[in-house]
Structures are given as C-alpha cells and as structure tokens.
Amino acid sequence: MKLENKIEKWRNELKDLDSFDQFELLLKYASHLNINENIQCEKYHIPGCKIDLWVKCKQKNNANVLIECDSDSLVIQGVLYIIKDIYEFESLEEIRKFPLKWMDCICEQVVYEDIKKNGLEKLYKEISRGE
Amino acid sequence: MNVHEVRKQFPFFENTSCIYLDNAATTQKPKIVIDRLTQYYSCENANLNRGDYLLSNELSNKIKKARETIADFIHARSDEIIFTKNATEALNLVASSLCSQFNEHDCVLLSYYEHHANYLPWIEHGNKKRLEIRQDSFERKIDWNHVKVMSISALSNVDGRTLDCKKWIQEAHKHDCLTVIDATAYIAHERVNVKELDVDFLCFSGHKLYGPQGIGVLYVKKDKQSYLKPLLYGGGIVEDITSKPIYKNNYELFEAGTVDCGAILGLETAIKFLQENFDEWIEYEKNLSDYCWHEIKTKTHFRVLYHNEPILSLVHDKISAYDISKFLSLNNIAVRCGHLCAKPYLNVMNLKSVCRISFSFYNTKQEVDNLIKCLCKLEDKIGSLYEIRK
Question: How far apart are CA A116 and CA A101, in angstroms?
C-alpha cells in the first residue's frame, strides 16, 4: 500500500471515534507493538516532561527505513504502532513528503498537542533524517 | 463542615462537572474574589500612587489596606511585603540579589525537594559568581561549610513532604546563613508565621491561595531589605533624579511600574475569605486526603510516594503517569502528570514522571470514590492488555 493510502486508512479509522474510543484503540494497538527493550538507552532517547520516547532507525542499503520505537506510555505506544505502520519500509524521500500532519485526527484529550509538537515531531525528524 | 455549601461559593462547580484534583497547580476562585476583580475594573480602576484625583487616592488607600491584610495573614509588617508577579519572580529577585553579593566558592544550600522556581534561579545566578549549589535531604546533620544562604520549600509540590523549617532556620542562623522559604505549596494548607519562623525571606503565589493569577508575595524581614537589588527599574522607585537617581528605601523600590492592583485586591479578598474558616477547612482537606490514601492503598496497586499533606503522587509498576492522567481526564477528573517542575527531586527518586492528586476543602468524598473507581477500572484494562501481550 502507498504511504498516503496508509495515512488515509488510519485517518478513517480514527477520525470518527470519540476520545474514549481512540484511547481504547490506541491501547489495543500498543499491545501489538513489537518492543525491543534494548533501545531504552540515552542514544535513542527523546526526553519529555510527561513521557519518554525512544527511537532507532536503520536504512538497509540506502533504501527503505526500519524503525524500532518505544515509550513509557501505553497510549503513546499505540501511536508508535501507527507511525511504524505508516513509515516503516518506506524510502526517506516518501517519508519526508508526509509529515505528521495526519495526527490531527487524534484528539487533544488523548495525545496532548505538546507531545505531538515536541516528542512525536522529534521522533518523526529522527525517522526522516536518515543515517 | 458542609462541603456542598462551600462549593456553592465557587462558580466553577456550577459551570462544570469536572472533578478538580489539581489544586497544587492552581486553585479555583470563590465568587467573592471574582466579584472583587469585576468591582475593581468596573468602578475603581485608576493609576496607583500617581494620580492627583480622588479615585487614585482611594485606590492607594485600598492597596495599602490590602498589603496590611496580606502581611497580617503571615504575621509580618506591611512594609515587609513586596508584591511580585508570582513566587518565581520573588525567588529570582532574592537569588539574583544575594548571589551577586557572594564570592566564589560560597555555597547556596537547597533541599532535594525543590521546585524549579527555587532551583534554577540559584543555579543561573550562582553560576555567574561560581558559587557552589549544594542540595541536601535535610534528614541528617548538614554540612554548613561555606553556606551563605539556605533556600528551601516548606512543602514539596511533588509529594507533600514537609521540612521542619523552624528548626533548619535556627540552624542556618547559628551559622550566619540567610534563610529563604518557598511557601508556595505550603501556604494553602498550613498557617504561616514569619515571626515565629524568624525567616529572612519567604514567598508564595496568590493563585494557589484562591486568589487571582499574576500576583505573588515576597516577605523580606525589615533588617534584610538592604540585601535586595531591584530586578526592574522604572516608574515609582525613585525619590528624585538629579545628577544620578536617588532610589526609595522601602518595598516600593522593588515594585517598579504599574502593579496589578486588581490581583492584589483579589488576593486580599481571598485571604479574608479563607481566614473565616481556615483551620476547619485545612483539617477537612487533610481528612479527605487520608481517606483517599487509604482507599488507594486498600483497593488498588498504585503506590503513593508519600503521605502527609493533601498532595498524593502516584506511580504504578505497569501504568505510566501519562496514561493514568489521560484516563482520568477522559473521565473528567483533572490531575497533573510529569516531573511537576521538580526534575532534580524525581531524579533522586529515580522516577521520570508521577501522577499527582491534590486536594482542596471544596473536594468531596464522592469525588474521591469516583477517582478510586477510575483507578480500579484502569488497572483492569491495562492488566488485560498485558495478558494479550504475553
């Protein structure tokens, strides 16, 4: 599936849900996120006042991006699952074309604007930076 | 005490169904305070101390009386009260003044429990003079070597831990140290008597005491006022300017420009409102906090960091503070999560983030019961999620 289609798919899944249902859905996806606890170290750390994020990206042969990420928050782990689903195995060029603007479909009640603008935005920059 | 009668005095509760348990961040305002602000801006607004007309003179007298009321509340003299924007500004004023007069290797002594407001000003102004910033748990004997000033919070905004300020002030004075108390988190839960404490500087913010935001109070013992240097220079602080400025020699020197008269009058009203029932109300909120602590302990697996004043901070083995506060928020319960602007203290505890519940006398047992129900529900939800992950 094309990256923009994946974004559209997630938008459609999230946009009509109220904040309670979005919270539940993100918890559900959190349980599907494959976590490598070894990335919970300073090198991959994105600090925040309310949550912590860790992200490690790899690019195989200058091609598509592999993403490992984690958070201390389960709700944010759910968001990371979606981010991974959208951006993993895509080229840097594609990733850079589609910033996190789509995340406006996740309610402020569930993910603070501050977390979207700072922590998750920094995570996206890390993913789109390349090696 | 009839809590429902008390709540009727707070319009916030008529306009929202929110269970407000973030009182350590800011308190809701009684109608009488809101009305005072309206009255000020509707009928009394003028320029303080500068106008040659009746309205301005009347306002000057009202602010003088407000200063007296606020001074009485902490057993100070009115000429020992300086109005600031908030406690942060007050602490910056004290830290910048004192640090500039110390020498390299002199030491500033803080506790581990400080809010950033009583940490960063000392770090920044202290670094300029290469001072040592020393933090201590205040649980054992203190190393007073080179200490010139001790600046401590009376009550931790993270977990309600209190320090025996009177004891440590006496100790500090024995070692010729100046003393500063940040009473911001303390002022709404305990009576403060600056004379009994014998403290040199003490500050708090009005909005944590049911007053408006934008007003803080700095108490400076009369014989310590010469230590302070203004943060701001401007109107109202000079006697005369000839070849050079001749500055005033009292609290006015530290209140350059137009002060927030509405907020000062609002804070005066809040203090009068509190004084009527203060002892009964603080006992009530302590009992409510005890009840909540007991319910958390017996019905959930959340851990309360410390149990003393009406501030309870929670952590959980499997649930992050963010997830707790988000779930409570979705259930219309307002709490605070994060490092609570006390990162050094959380570092000491090896914690990244906590979820803080803080009470006021307008909170009810029913609200606590709803909180406990939500916490139990969240534990169930997250528990089943971990089952899936397994």
Answer: 10
Q: Which of A31, A72, A109 sits opposite B385 (nearest CB)?
A: A31
Cβ–Cβ contact A41 with B under 8 A = no
Chain B residues with CB-CB distance to A28 below 8 A: 385
Chain-chain contact of B353 with A31 (C-beta, under 8 angstroms) = no
Mutation pick from B22, B115, B318, B322 vs chain A, by most beta carbons of A within 10 Å, is B322
Helix (H) or strand (E) holding B283: helix B261-299
| Closest by CA position to A80, among listed A15, A25, A128, A30 | A30
Nearest CA to B163 out of B172, B55, B211 is that of B172
Instruction: Decide if B362 contacts B7 (C-beta within 8 A).
Output: yes
Extended strands (E) in chain B = 19-20, 81-84, 107-111, 132-136, 147-153, 178-182, 201-205, 216-220, 238-241, 245-247, 303-304, 311-315, 333-334, 336-338, 354-358
Question: How many Cβ atoms from other residues are within 10 Å of residue B331's Cβ?
Answer: 16
Within 8 A by CB and 6+ apart from B65, the residues are B268
DSSP B238: E
CA dihedral B296, B297, B299, B301 (to 10 degrees): 90
Q: Is A108 on the interface with B (CB under 8 A)?
A: no
Predicted-complex ipTM score: 0.89
pLDDT tens readout for residues B190-225? 999 999 999 999 999 999 999 999 999 999 999 999
B341 classed as catalytic = yes
Task: Identify from B326, B335, B340, B355 which residue to disrupt to test chain A contact, counting A C-beta atoms within 10 A and taking the largest count.
Answer: B326
Q: Work out the number of other CB atoms within 10 angstroms of the CB of residue B308.
A: 16
Split at pLDDT 50, 70, 90, the class of B189 is: very high
CB B300 within 8 A of CB B294: no
Is-contact B148 B106, C-beta < 8 A? yes
With a CB cutoff of 8 Å and minimum separation 6, the contacts of B113 are B152, B153, B156, B158, B161, B163, B342, B345
Q: What is the largest CA-CA distance in chain B?
A: 80
The single residue of B341, B355, B374, B376 carrying the catalytic annotation is: B341
A50 interfaces chain B, CB cutoff of 8 Å: yes
pLDDT tens-place string over residues B24-73 = 999 999 999 999 999 999 999 998 877 789 999 999 999 999 999 999 99
Token readout for A101 is 């603007």
Q: What phi-psi label fits residue B214: left (phi over 0), alpha (psi between -120 and 50 degrees) or beta?
A: left
> Which residue type sits at B292?
C
SS3 B101: helix
CB B149 within 8 A of CB B98: yes
